Protein backbone atom coordinates (compact mmCIF):
# COMPACT_ATOMS: atom_id res chain seq x y z
CA UNK A 1 0.00 0.00 0.00
CA UNK A 2 1.33 3.41 -0.94
CA UNK A 3 2.23 5.90 1.78
CA UNK A 4 -0.28 8.45 0.52
CA UNK A 5 -3.13 5.90 0.45
CA UNK A 6 -2.29 4.72 3.95
CA UNK A 7 -2.18 8.29 5.18
CA UNK A 8 -5.62 8.91 3.64
CA UNK A 9 -6.98 5.79 5.32
CA UNK A 10 -5.48 6.64 8.71
CA UNK A 11 -6.89 10.16 8.55
CA UNK A 12 -10.29 8.48 8.57
CA UNK A 13 -9.47 6.54 11.73
CA UNK A 14 -10.39 9.36 14.10
CA UNK A 15 -13.03 8.43 16.64
CA UNK A 16 -15.46 10.94 18.08
CA UNK A 17 -16.24 11.25 21.75
CA UNK A 18 -19.83 11.23 22.97
CA UNK A 19 -21.77 14.53 22.82
CA UNK A 20 -21.71 15.16 26.56
CA UNK A 21 -18.03 14.33 26.95
CA UNK A 22 -16.90 17.89 27.68
CA UNK A 23 -19.83 18.68 29.99
CA UNK A 24 -19.22 15.50 31.99
CA UNK A 25 -15.53 16.32 32.12
CA UNK A 26 -16.10 19.85 33.41
CA UNK A 27 -18.46 18.48 36.07
CA UNK A 28 -15.84 15.93 37.14
CA UNK A 29 -13.22 18.68 37.30
CA UNK A 30 -15.49 20.83 39.49
CA UNK A 31 -16.05 17.90 41.86
CA UNK A 32 -12.33 17.11 42.00
CA UNK A 33 -11.54 20.78 42.74
CA UNK A 34 -13.98 20.76 45.66
CA UNK A 35 -12.58 17.47 46.95
CA UNK A 36 -9.07 18.89 46.74
CA UNK A 37 -10.03 21.94 48.82
CA UNK A 38 -11.58 19.71 51.47
CA UNK A 39 -8.58 17.38 51.37
CA UNK A 40 -6.15 20.26 51.95
CA UNK A 41 -8.24 21.77 54.74
CA UNK A 42 -8.46 18.37 56.43
CA UNK A 43 -4.71 17.86 56.37
CA UNK A 44 -4.13 21.42 57.54
CA UNK A 45 -6.72 21.01 60.29
CA UNK A 46 -5.00 17.86 61.47
CA UNK A 47 -1.60 19.60 61.54
CA UNK A 48 -3.02 22.60 63.38
CA UNK A 49 -4.83 20.57 66.04
CA UNK A 50 -1.86 18.24 66.57
CA UNK A 51 0.52 21.20 66.91
CA UNK A 52 -1.81 22.89 69.41
CA UNK A 53 -2.21 19.69 71.41
CA UNK A 54 1.56 19.38 71.62
CA UNK A 55 2.45 23.03 72.13
CA UNK A 56 -0.04 24.01 74.84
CA UNK A 57 0.94 21.37 77.40
CA UNK A 58 4.64 21.81 76.50
CA UNK A 59 4.43 25.57 77.13
CA UNK A 60 2.58 25.03 80.40
CA UNK A 61 5.08 22.45 81.54
CA UNK A 62 8.02 24.63 80.61
CA UNK A 63 6.49 27.63 82.39
CA UNK A 64 5.90 25.54 85.50
CA UNK A 65 9.37 24.02 85.42
CA UNK A 66 11.18 27.32 84.87
CA UNK A 67 9.69 28.68 88.07
CA UNK A 68 11.19 25.83 90.03
CA UNK A 69 14.78 25.82 91.23
CA UNK A 70 16.54 22.57 90.43
CA UNK A 71 19.97 21.34 89.36
CA UNK A 72 18.65 19.97 86.07
CA UNK A 73 17.01 23.24 85.07
CA UNK A 74 20.09 25.28 85.88
CA UNK A 75 21.74 23.60 82.86
CA UNK A 76 19.12 25.16 80.62
CA UNK A 77 19.55 28.53 82.28
CA UNK A 78 23.25 28.47 81.42
CA UNK A 79 22.61 28.05 77.67
CA UNK A 80 23.43 31.33 75.87
CA UNK A 81 20.34 33.08 74.49
CA UNK A 82 21.63 34.14 71.02
CA UNK A 83 22.37 30.68 69.57
CA UNK A 84 19.08 29.43 70.98
CA UNK A 85 17.26 32.34 69.35
CA UNK A 86 18.94 31.61 65.99
CA UNK A 87 18.14 27.89 66.24
CA UNK A 88 14.48 28.51 67.13
CA UNK A 89 14.12 31.08 64.31
CA UNK A 90 15.60 28.61 61.79
CA UNK A 91 13.29 25.89 63.03
CA UNK A 92 10.29 28.20 62.65
CA UNK A 93 11.35 29.19 59.13
CA UNK A 94 11.75 25.51 58.27
CA UNK A 95 8.25 24.77 59.57
CA UNK A 96 6.74 27.66 57.58
CA UNK A 97 8.57 26.39 54.48
CA UNK A 98 7.13 22.91 55.05
CA UNK A 99 3.59 24.30 55.30
CA UNK A 100 4.04 26.34 52.08
CA UNK A 101 5.44 23.27 50.31
CA UNK A 102 2.47 21.21 51.52
CA UNK A 103 0.13 23.86 50.15
CA UNK A 104 1.91 23.87 46.76
CA UNK A 105 1.89 20.07 46.56
CA UNK A 106 -1.81 20.06 47.35
CA UNK A 107 -2.42 22.56 44.54
CA UNK A 108 -0.56 20.40 42.04
CA UNK A 109 -2.23 17.10 42.92
CA UNK B 1 3.02 32.35 13.64
CA UNK B 2 -0.05 33.12 15.77
CA UNK B 3 -2.17 30.65 13.81
CA UNK B 4 0.23 27.82 14.57
CA UNK B 5 -1.72 25.19 16.58
CA UNK B 6 1.07 25.06 19.17
CA UNK B 7 0.80 28.81 19.78
CA UNK B 8 -2.98 28.56 19.97
CA UNK B 9 -2.59 25.78 22.53
CA UNK B 10 -0.06 27.81 24.50
CA UNK B 11 -2.45 30.74 24.64
CA UNK B 12 -5.31 28.51 25.81
CA UNK B 13 -3.10 26.83 28.40
CA UNK B 14 -2.01 30.20 29.83
CA UNK B 15 -5.65 31.26 30.09
CA UNK B 16 -6.67 27.92 31.63
CA UNK B 17 -3.90 28.20 34.23
CA UNK B 18 -5.31 31.60 35.19
CA UNK B 19 -8.64 29.86 35.81
CA UNK B 20 -10.41 30.37 32.47
CA UNK B 21 -12.48 27.19 32.16
CA UNK B 22 -13.75 28.20 28.71
CA UNK B 23 -10.16 28.12 27.47
CA UNK B 24 -9.73 24.65 28.91
CA UNK B 25 -12.95 23.56 27.22
CA UNK B 26 -11.54 24.79 23.89
CA UNK B 27 -8.31 22.92 24.53
CA UNK B 28 -10.19 19.70 25.24
CA UNK B 29 -12.44 20.22 22.22
CA UNK B 30 -9.42 20.55 19.96
CA UNK B 31 -7.71 17.37 21.13
CA UNK B 32 -10.38 15.01 22.47
CA UNK B 33 -11.06 13.03 19.30
CA UNK B 34 -7.46 12.27 18.40
CA UNK B 35 -6.76 11.46 22.06
CA UNK B 36 -9.70 9.05 22.07
CA UNK B 37 -8.41 7.41 18.90
CA UNK B 38 -5.03 6.86 20.57
CA UNK B 39 -6.68 5.50 23.71
CA UNK B 40 -8.78 3.09 21.63
CA UNK B 41 -5.60 1.85 19.94
CA UNK B 42 -4.45 0.56 23.32
CA UNK B 43 -7.68 -0.20 25.18
CA UNK B 44 -9.64 -1.36 22.09
CA UNK B 45 -13.03 -0.71 23.72
CA UNK B 46 -14.27 2.84 22.85
CA UNK B 47 -16.50 3.10 25.95
CA UNK B 48 -13.73 2.21 28.40
CA UNK B 49 -11.30 4.37 26.44
CA UNK B 50 -13.62 7.36 26.81
CA UNK B 51 -13.83 6.82 30.58
CA UNK B 52 -10.05 6.71 30.77
CA UNK B 53 -9.86 9.84 28.64
CA UNK B 54 -12.02 11.66 31.20
CA UNK B 55 -9.43 10.78 33.85
CA UNK B 56 -6.66 11.90 31.52
CA UNK B 57 -8.18 15.35 31.03
CA UNK B 58 -8.85 15.75 34.77
CA UNK B 59 -5.18 14.93 35.32
CA UNK B 60 -4.18 17.38 32.58
CA UNK B 61 -6.32 20.14 34.16
CA UNK B 62 -4.62 19.74 37.53
CA UNK B 63 -1.12 19.40 36.07
CA UNK B 64 -1.44 22.22 33.55
CA UNK B 65 0.71 24.53 35.67
CA UNK B 66 3.58 22.06 35.38
CA UNK B 67 3.55 22.30 31.56
CA UNK B 68 6.88 23.82 30.53
CA UNK B 69 5.93 25.35 27.14
CA UNK B 70 9.11 23.83 25.68
CA UNK B 71 7.41 21.23 23.49
CA UNK B 72 4.05 20.96 21.76
CA UNK B 73 1.09 20.49 24.07
CA UNK B 74 0.02 17.47 22.00
CA UNK B 75 3.28 15.63 22.72
CA UNK B 76 2.69 16.17 26.45
CA UNK B 77 -0.98 15.24 26.23
CA UNK B 78 -0.46 12.12 24.12
CA UNK B 79 2.23 10.93 26.52
CA UNK B 80 -0.26 11.20 29.40
CA UNK B 81 -2.91 9.41 27.30
CA UNK B 82 -0.54 6.56 26.43
CA UNK B 83 0.84 6.20 29.97
CA UNK B 84 -2.61 6.27 31.56
CA UNK B 85 -3.97 3.71 29.12
CA UNK B 86 -1.08 1.32 29.70
CA UNK B 87 -1.41 1.78 33.47
CA UNK B 88 -5.13 1.07 33.32
CA UNK B 89 -4.52 -1.93 31.12
CA UNK B 90 -2.08 -3.32 33.67
CA UNK B 91 -4.28 -2.45 36.66
CA UNK B 92 -7.60 -3.74 35.44
CA UNK B 93 -6.43 -6.35 32.95
CA UNK B 94 -9.13 -5.67 30.41
CA UNK B 95 -10.05 -8.66 28.34
CA UNK B 96 -11.35 -7.26 25.12
CA UNK B 97 -12.82 -9.69 22.73
CA UNK B 98 -11.98 -8.57 19.24
CA UNK B 99 -14.79 -10.73 17.82
CA UNK B 100 -17.37 -8.64 19.68
CA UNK B 101 -16.14 -5.43 18.17
CA UNK B 102 -17.24 -6.57 14.73
CA UNK B 103 -20.83 -6.70 16.00
CA UNK B 104 -20.41 -3.39 17.79
CA UNK B 105 -19.45 -1.66 14.56
CA UNK B 106 -22.38 -3.23 12.62
CA UNK B 107 -20.59 -3.66 9.36
CA UNK B 108 -22.53 -3.03 6.18
CA UNK B 109 -22.39 -5.36 3.23
CA UNK B 110 -19.61 -4.63 0.77
CA UNK B 111 -21.67 -5.67 -2.21
CA UNK B 112 -22.51 -2.04 -3.06
CA UNK B 113 -20.38 -0.53 -5.75
CA UNK B 114 -19.10 2.18 -3.47
CA UNK B 115 -18.57 2.30 0.27
CA UNK B 116 -20.01 5.32 2.00
CA UNK B 117 -17.69 7.58 4.01
CA UNK B 118 -19.21 6.52 7.35
CA UNK B 119 -18.92 2.86 6.43
CA UNK B 120 -15.33 3.36 5.35
CA UNK B 121 -14.59 4.62 8.85
CA UNK B 122 -16.16 1.52 10.38
CA UNK B 123 -14.04 -0.79 8.26
CA UNK B 124 -10.90 1.15 9.10
CA UNK B 125 -11.75 1.03 12.81
CA UNK B 126 -12.33 -2.68 12.63
CA UNK B 127 -9.10 -3.29 10.75
CA UNK B 128 -7.21 -1.25 13.37
CA UNK B 129 -8.92 -3.19 16.15
CA UNK B 130 -7.39 -6.39 14.80
CA UNK B 131 -3.87 -4.99 15.04
CA UNK B 132 -1.72 -5.23 18.14
CA UNK B 133 -2.15 -2.17 20.42
CA UNK B 134 1.42 -1.03 19.82
CA UNK B 135 1.06 -1.29 16.04
CA UNK B 136 -2.19 0.65 15.80
CA UNK B 137 -0.87 3.24 18.30
CA UNK B 138 2.29 3.87 16.29
CA UNK B 139 0.34 3.96 13.01
CA UNK B 140 -2.07 6.56 14.42
CA UNK B 141 0.72 8.66 15.91
CA UNK B 142 2.60 8.63 12.61
CA UNK B 143 -0.19 9.03 10.07
CA UNK B 144 -3.07 10.57 12.02
CA UNK B 145 -1.14 12.88 14.35
CA UNK B 146 1.61 13.32 11.76
CA UNK B 147 4.35 13.05 14.36
CA UNK B 148 7.98 12.30 13.63
CA UNK B 149 9.66 9.10 14.80
CA UNK B 150 11.53 11.14 17.43
CA UNK B 151 8.24 12.48 18.81
CA UNK B 152 6.69 8.99 18.79
CA UNK B 153 9.74 7.79 20.69
CA UNK B 154 9.28 10.42 23.36
CA UNK B 155 5.56 9.66 23.72
CA UNK B 156 5.75 5.87 23.78
CA UNK B 157 9.27 5.52 25.24
CA UNK B 158 9.94 2.92 22.53
CA UNK B 159 13.36 2.82 20.90
CA UNK B 160 13.75 4.18 17.35
CA UNK B 161 14.26 0.69 15.97
CA UNK B 162 11.08 -0.55 17.68
CA UNK B 163 9.04 2.36 16.31
CA UNK B 164 10.32 1.63 12.80
CA UNK B 165 9.59 -2.11 13.12
CA UNK B 166 6.08 -1.42 14.47
CA UNK B 167 5.41 1.00 11.62
CA UNK B 168 6.59 -1.52 9.07
CA UNK B 169 4.52 -4.36 10.55
CA UNK B 170 1.55 -2.08 11.09
CA UNK B 171 1.52 -1.01 7.44
CA UNK B 172 1.55 -4.62 6.30
CA UNK B 173 -1.05 -5.76 8.81
CA UNK B 174 -3.55 -2.96 8.20
CA UNK B 175 -3.36 -3.68 4.47
CA UNK B 176 -3.91 -7.37 5.17
CA UNK B 177 -6.85 -6.73 7.50
CA UNK B 178 -8.53 -4.32 5.08
CA UNK B 179 -8.03 -6.79 2.26
CA UNK B 180 -9.63 -9.51 4.41
CA UNK B 181 -12.59 -7.28 5.23
CA UNK B 182 -13.16 -5.63 1.87
CA UNK B 183 -11.56 -7.86 -0.73
CA UNK B 184 -11.51 -6.07 -4.05
CA UNK B 185 -13.60 -3.22 -2.60
CA UNK B 186 -10.42 -2.08 -0.88
CA UNK B 187 -9.75 -0.01 -4.00
CA UNK B 188 -12.68 2.25 -3.04
CA UNK B 189 -10.82 3.22 0.10
CA UNK B 190 -7.61 4.08 -1.71
TrEMBL record, chain A:
Keyword Transmembrane: yes
Residues that span the membrane, as ranges: 46-66, 78-100
Membrane as UniProt keyword: yes
Keywords of this entry: Membrane, Transmembrane, Transmembrane helix
Protein name as it appears in the record: Uncharacterized protein
Species, as recorded: Dokdonia pacifica
Automatic annotation (TrEMBL), chain B:
Keyword DNA-binding listed: yes
Membrane-spanning segments: none
A GO BP annotation: DNA-templated transcription initiation
Highest taxon of the lineage: Bacteria
Xref: InterPro entries: RNA_pol_sigma-70-like, RNA_pol_sigma-70_dom, RNA_pol_sigma70_ECF_CS, RNA_pol_sigma70_r2, RNA_pol_sigma70_r4_t2, RNA_pol_sigma_r2, RNA_pol_sigma_r3/r4-like, WH-like_DNA-bd_sf
Residues in RNA polymerase sigma factor 70 region 4 type domain copies: 123-171
Family indicated by similarity: Belongs to the sigma-70 factor family. ECF subfamily.
Name of this chain's protein: RNA polymerase sigma factor
All copies of domain RNA polymerase sigma-70 region, residue ranges: 30-93
Classification via Gene3D superfamilies: 1.10.1740.10, Winged helix-like DNA-binding domain superfamily/Winged helix DNA-binding domain
Record-linked SUPFAM superfamilies: Sigma2 domain of RNA polymerase sigma factors, Sigma3 and sigma4 domains of RNA polymerase sigma factors
Transcription regulation listed as a keyword: yes
Protein species of origin: Dokdonia pacifica
One protein family per Pfam: Sigma70_r2
GO molecular function ontology, one term from the record: sigma factor activity
Protein keywords: DNA-binding, Sigma factor, Transcription, Transcription regulation
